[in-house]
Amino acid sequence: MLIDRQARIIEKKSWGNYYLFRIESPEIAGRAEPGQFLMIKVSNHLPPLLRRPISLHNAENGAVEIFFQVAGTGTRLLAEKEVGSTMDLLGPLGRGFTVEQKLKGQEVFCVGGGRGIAPLYFLARKLKKTGAKPVVFYGGRTKEDLPLTNKLKELGLEVMVSTDDGSAGFSGLVTALVGETLATRSPAFLYACGPEAMMENLAQLCQRKNLPAEFSLESIMGCGFGACFGCVRKIKRNGQPSYLKICQEGPVFGLEEIVWQEKENG
Amino acid sequence: MLIDRQARIIEKKSWGNYYLFRIESPEIAGRAEPGQFLMIKVSNHLPPLLRRPISLHNAENGAVEIFFQVAGTGTRLLAEKEVGSTMDLLGPLGRGFTVEQKLKGQEVFCVGGGRGIAPLYFLARKLKKTGAKPVVFYGGRTKEDLPLTNKLKELGLEVMVSTDDGSAGFSGLVTALVGETLATRSPAFLYACGPEAMMENLAQLCQRKNLPAEFSLESIMGCGFGACFGCVRKIKRNGQPSYLKICQEGPVFGLEEIVWQEKENG
Amino acid sequence: MVDLSVDLGFLKLKSPVLAASGTFGYGLEFKPFYDLNALGGFVIKGLYFSPREGNKPPRLVETPCGLINSIGLQGVGVEKFCQEILPQLAQLDTAIIVNVCGEDEDEYARVAEYLNHYEGISAFELNISCPNVREGGRCPAQNPEATYRTVKKVKEVSSVPLITKLSPNVTDIVSVALAAQEAGSQAISLINTILAMAIDIENRRPRLNNIFGGLSGPAIKPVAVRMVFQVARAVSVPVIGMGGIFSAEDALEFIMAGASAVQVGTANFVDPDVCLKIINDLKNWAEQHGVEKISNLVGCVKI
Amino acid sequence: MVDLSVDLGFLKLKSPVLAASGTFGYGLEFKPFYDLNALGGFVIKGLYFSPREGNKPPRLVETPCGLINSIGLQGVGVEKFCQEILPQLAQLDTAIIVNVCGEDEDEYARVAEYLNHYEGISAFELNISCPNVREGGRCPAQNPEATYRTVKKVKEVSSVPLITKLSPNVTDIVSVALAAQEAGSQAISLINTILAMAIDIENRRPRLNNIFGGLSGPAIKPVAVRMVFQVARAVSVPVIGMGGIFSAEDALEFIMAGASAVQVGTANFVDPDVCLKIINDLKNWAEQHGVEKISNLVGCVKI
Ligand SMILES: Cc1cc2nc3c(=O)[nH]c(=O)nc-3n(C[C@H](O)[C@H](O)[C@H](O)COP(=O)(O)OP(=O)(O)OC[C@H]3O[C@@H](n4cnc5c(N)ncnc54)[C@H](O)[C@@H]3O)c2cc1C
Ligand SMILES: Cc1cc2nc3c(=O)[nH]c(=O)nc-3n(C[C@H](O)[C@H](O)[C@H](O)COP(=O)(O)OP(=O)(O)OC[C@H]3O[C@@H](n4cnc5c(N)ncnc54)[C@H](O)[C@@H]3O)c2cc1C
Ligand SMILES: Cc1cc2nc3c(=O)[nH]c(=O)nc-3n(C[C@H](O)[C@H](O)[C@H](O)COP(=O)(O)O)c2cc1C
Ligand SMILES: Cc1cc2nc3c(=O)[nH]c(=O)nc-3n(C[C@H](O)[C@H](O)[C@H](O)COP(=O)(O)O)c2cc1C
Ligand code: FES
Ligand code: FES
């Protein structure tokens, strides 16, 4: 974990509300693991006061990639940055996805909803390298929400897309697509990142099917490195459920660890 | 007085810490008088919270000009704006300099210190049109503080410059230069804008010489249009000295009106 | 068509958006920017019996997302106000509220008595919470007993409905609000500014000549929302909320916290037409959210 | 060479910059970013006798130039702290201050008594001002008598120097500070957070599960500077100032207002190495301004 105050944006793409940046940051890129995240200072002026957590979408050749959706002031300011300008990054933070050697040769599902696809690209790359066979499920409300479909296909992966309105791929929720697919296929593991409701539904599916899984959770973060106790969620780890820091003990947690009902206050 | 939220920057120049913008704003330009000012929103985000007061440096052909020096956060953000971007202007505000017809054919002195030169360009143009003969005194710490010298000369005016360090023109304070010049010449009026100490010294000179004069004062401004009572200074107008609003009753005041000792708190 | 009107009981407002005292001059300063009749109303700058000079400048300093002022209630006094300004306001079709000030309880009452005789004043807002006139920022609203006495005294002489404006510089805002209600105040407005200070480290002096001033603006909004929420749940009279409102979304926070109406202060300096914008945006928000009457939202926050 | 050291009487600090409780974890979280020995010291997150869960999330919300938190003092309790964390801190050569909490006066005393037996604690900071644990944000620091009683009780059992941390949610900060001094507190630190609230207007719910939380960050700096100034002029013990310090310039405002040392809170979240930067910038500022000893600036504001 380190601070890179001079990370330079070397590529920028955008699709509507979605943005992808490629940022030169050799040291962070060198340490990054799929599922970890960055805390990004979106502006040199206040507000916003706090950094914003954004997943590592990729890390290669001394650069990291991020993929994000404009959700408010912070991400809007981030989106306004241009190629050539520098950013202040803190990372890599948190514990990423577990990729065990025993997945070699096995089929694994990676399920991303909306901006939740961000860390799964990086994960799928690593899975492939390990010799696993990742199948990526990519869901959105409409086809405009699926800008990374080609990028994923270019990795040589099987990609199944779904849209709530049927404008591309499977018509319906991505959870329904995963459910249907599970009727005929038996992956060794499932990884997911996306809206809370999506992940909770997937967790139920996995429980029924006895399918081991990991989920990347979100939470409002004050610091990103364990200092503020702001990001906690109820997690069962070594015994009783207790409030664990998402930023340090997660953001990735195992199926059995997560207490979903603890949604509290929307 | 009106709000132009879409005033477009059409020209930008800079010299070190000094900036000149030409901004398309036909309605404000059409009403502007020398000595009046704008309240400028320097950013669409907070902070800074408040607009910043900047004098009208010129108004012609549907555009206004401003000339400013970076003094803090607000002016720094202003300086970062680029040609083509739009600004939110409120103006023209306040009461400008008095230019009476009887100055026709007479010599008048315009004394600007540092960024205080800003409104005097606009004033000198108007004086020339009236048929007066403006002589511009332009003082700075060093020759880098005098970026408008040529622009003033191009108006066809007599321009006398001074620098504290002698790097250009008269070596010493601009007040000394004015004092020396007054030994041999007898202008009909003096106008000044600049640091408080400079103006106070000039006021003493004028009093001794019985030279009528007007000064453009500064004050921290909350609103710029009379609503907050934040910008007051002690002024003698119709009787006893009282706190008058610089933004509405000024920023230009007559020699006899200003209570200089009322500097209060640096 | 969304219904923006608000019934305070003693006063019907066209919209829940008022301009706050001390930030709207005498109203006339804003005429160039829009038709003031769009407003729910506005509150006149604090008025003492006699004209007042106010504090020595500098009187303003900007802080992160905030503004500290130490104006000290510079103003024209009741006579000039009634002779020269009120007649110009009388033509407006919107609520004119006078912010009533006093050095002591007697002066508050004298101001109220004087103003009683004039037409065109919809209500008094009793300013017992200005931090800029007494030593160390003290004011009656910092004490339930002093609040009760002052309100009671004015209530007895006043023929105009009474709103009492509270100070945030207290340990227990609810006890002060209850005292004002008990003494007959027909509404509570809050918050006035938070006592604050800034130092110019180069000169090693306070930035304000008065040393202390009152903090306003977005910085204080979370404190104001909290206090409005606390007071609205404790009193039975309507609450008028303010503190850092710059947008319709900000106004809605206060309304949902329990404010029947809101006041917009510092924002008027930045965007002279901000009240108009907030009113329009409130209307749009209500339409988009299927809210027929803005006042249905008052205090709707679920806890 | 500028002398940054500060002598609080009961404790010598290498520099006037401490990290504030609750914003520096147990210190260890910051080891990756710089050598903690550069600090004047740091204050451990609030410690109760037993481990505590803290409040339900969401626990944070950002506001204009501010942060509201309702962590509710989640923590490991004294036993685990002394067994597992303190030994790791003992190797550091900087002041370790423990923020002592309690549900009631007895618990404060029990925590102090327990910690007395361990080496490596430079001082206790008595946290009688957390707005996040009792109903409606109440705390002992809102009342001079409760303050006196709590401080006195801890003082009687404590073998470690005592700092008392005050709450800004009061009418009269000076009376509380005097009560703490009277009861034997050897220093006063202030301010803790300001009680605040934010509402999610789309969901019509408070943004924090706990409804209220404490506001920190640049937004509150002008309020904090004012209170530090007031307290420093009234007490004879040293004052430790905090609230919204993000830069050396901010720190200097507090020092000139009368703070012998400062604490940096929320800023640690944004820039984990901010304390180090502030220390370096303070040194440079002092050099440029011909100040040989930072502590010569304490309370130097001219009024
Ligand atoms: C570990 C982690 C990784 C993330 N990775 C990505 C990513 O790769 N791409 C991406 O587009 N987004 C990602 N997010 C979400 C992203 O952090 C939020 O969208 C962003 O912080 C919103 O900030 P804002 O200023 O734009 O919006 P705000 O105006 O602050 O808020 C807009 C909405 O976003 C919610 N929000 C605010 N902060 C957070 C937060 N920390 N987490 C979740 N929701 C929040 C608010 O409650 C509000 O509803 C991630 C979040 C976490 C915790
Ligand atoms: C009527 C009027 C006309 C002006 N015209 C010009 C102009 O044409 N060109 C130009 O360069 N400057 C002009 N100024 C000064 C300019 O407004 C300030 O330099 C600017 O507001 C500083 O803002 P900031 O955010 O950059 O600095 P801040 O960080 O806010 O402050 C930096 C320094 O400037 C001082 N300052 C802050 N606000 C003002 C203010 N309103 N007036 C004076 N000093 C202030 C502060 O006390 C501080 O010492 C004018 C000021 C007034 C009142
Ligand atoms: C410059 C200024 C002057 C003020 N004068 C008064 C006043 O005369 N009477 C009063 O009751 N409140 C006065 N206030 C307080 C405001 O009415 C309001 O309560 C406060 O500023 C909080 O609202 P805001 O954050 O929207 O400004 C003044 C505020 C400012 C900024
Ligand atoms: C997330 C968070 C947790 C805090 N926890 C504590 C605490 O445990 N004990 C305490 O005395 N103060 C606590 N505080 C208050 C800070 O120590 C400090 O007094 C306050 O935040 C003001 O300083 P700042 O604006 O620099 O953050 C906490 C503040 C924050 C933001
Ligand atoms: S975000 Fe601060 S502890 Fe997790
Ligand atoms: S700046 Fe507001 S009255 Fe002059």
Strand order of the largest sheet of chain A: 4-3-7-1-2-6-5
Oligomer: heterotetramer
Q: Please tally the helical runs of chain A, counting DSSP H or I stretches of 4 or more residues.
A: 7
- When the domains of chain C are counted, the total is 1
Largest interface: C-D, 46 and 46 residues
What fraction of the residues of chain A are assigned to beta strands by DSSP? 25-35%
Mean pLDDT of chain A equals 94
**Gap between N and C termini of chain A:** 31 Å
The CATH topology of chain C is: TIM Barrel
Widest sheet, order of strands of chain C:
3-4-7-8-9-10-15-16
CATH-scheme architecture of the largest domain in chain A? 3-Layer(aba) Sandwich
Shape of chain A: globular
CATH topology of the largest domain in chain A: Rossmann fold
CA radius of gyration of chain A is 18 Å
Q: What is the CATH first-level class name of the largest domain in chain A? A: Alpha Beta
The computed structural class of chain C is alpha/beta
Strand/helix succession of chain A: EEHEEEEHEEHEHEEHEHEEEHE
Cα shape of chain C: globular
CATH superfamily of chain C: Aldolase class I
SSE layout:
The complex is a heterotetramer, with two copies of chain A (266 residues) and two copies of chain C (303 residues).
Chain A: E1 2-15, E2 18-24, H1 26-31, E3 37-41, E4 52-55, E5 58-60, E6 63-69, H2 73-79, E7 86-93, E8 107-113, H3 118-130, E9 133-140, H4 149-154, E10 158-163, E11 170-171, H5 174-184, E12 189-193, H6 196-209, E13 213-216, E14 232-236, E15 241-245, H7 246-249, E16 252-254
Parallel strand pairs in A: 8-9, 8-12, 9-10, 10-11, 12-13
Antiparallel strand pairs in A: 1-2, 1-7, 2-6, 3-4, 3-7, 5-6, 13-16, 14-15
Helix pairs in contact in A: 5-6
Chain C: E1 6-7, E2 12-13, E3 17-19, E4 41-47, E5 60-63, E6 66-69, H1 77-89, E7 95-100, H2 105-116, E8 123-127, H3 144-157, E9 162-165, H4 173-182, E10 187-190, E11 194-196, E12 199-200, E13 205-206, E14 213-216, H5 221-232, E15 239-242, H6 248-257, E16 261-264, H7 267-270, H8 274-288
Parallel strand pairs in C: 3-4, 3-16, 4-7, 7-8, 8-9, 9-10, 10-15, 15-16
Antiparallel strand pairs in C: 1-2, 5-6, 6-14, 11-14, 12-13
Helix pairs in contact in C: 2-3, 3-4, 5-6, 6-8
Bound molecules: flavin-adenine dinucleotide (FAD) (2 copies), flavin mononucleotide (FMN) (2 copies) and FE2/S2 (inorganic) cluster (2 copies).
One flavin-adenine dinucleotide (FAD) binds next to strand 4, strand 6 and helix 2 of chain B.
